[in-house]
Design the sequence.
């Protein structure tokens, strides 16, 4: 029997945000009231593999094996109207983690209309707008102490501290005193 419908039902019933699955840990639902354990025993690698086989299409399983991570948006299902689920899986330090994330879709009466698409601006108008842009005027007030750059630091960075004739490369005897103990 499939565990997926029961897991998704628990996720929705507990108003959870995600179902977190990791071998060796108790499977749990991340909810606004805190984590809710779903089992009394840790999840096994075989059980997680069975869930992956059940939940994910072959292309997503292949992506997980080749890339080390994947994300797949499950299609809407009549069993959970107004709910969308995204499955995210990744190998973290060679251990597989999987989350089933829940997104609530607004009801038709609550749907917010999409804003109209922006009118495209022809490239000639963009170039004109950019070339006619004026620089911001500088303030007539001198900068405050916090805004004023430290001129001495800038001058030190710009001036060479020593010339090529001042370069001295120490000998091996100067670098190491012969004492092998560091």
Sequence:
């Amino acid at each position: 029997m499939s565990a997926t419908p029961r897991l998704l039902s628990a996720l929705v019933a507990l108003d959870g945000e995600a179902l977190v699955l990791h071998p060796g840990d108790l499977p749990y639902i991340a909810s606004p009231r805190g984590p809710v354990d779903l089992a009394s025993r840790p999840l096994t690698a075989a059980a997680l593999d069975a869930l992956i086989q059940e939940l994910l299409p072959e292309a997503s399983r292949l992506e997980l094996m080749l890339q080390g991570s994947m994300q797949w948006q499950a299609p809407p299902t009549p069993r959970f109207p107004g709910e969308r689920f995204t499955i995210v899986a990744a190998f973290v330090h060679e251990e597989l983690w999987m989350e089933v994330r829940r997104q609530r879709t607004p009801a038709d009466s609550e749907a917010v209309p999409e804003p109209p698409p922006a009118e495209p601006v022809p490239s000639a108008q963009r170039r004109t707008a950019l070339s006619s842009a004026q620089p911001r005027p500088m303030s007539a007030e001198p900068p405050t102490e916090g805004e004023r750059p430290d001129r001495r630091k800038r001058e030190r960075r710009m001036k060479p501290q020593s010339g090529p004739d001042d370069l001295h490369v120490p000998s091996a005897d100067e670098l190491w005193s012969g004492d092998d103990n560091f």
User: Anything to note?
Assistant: The chain has six helices and six strands. Residues 108-112, 125-136, 147-161 have pLDDT under 50 and may be disordered. The beta strands are 18-21, 28-31, 34-37, 69-73, 83-92, 95-104. The two ends are 67 Å apart (CA to CA).
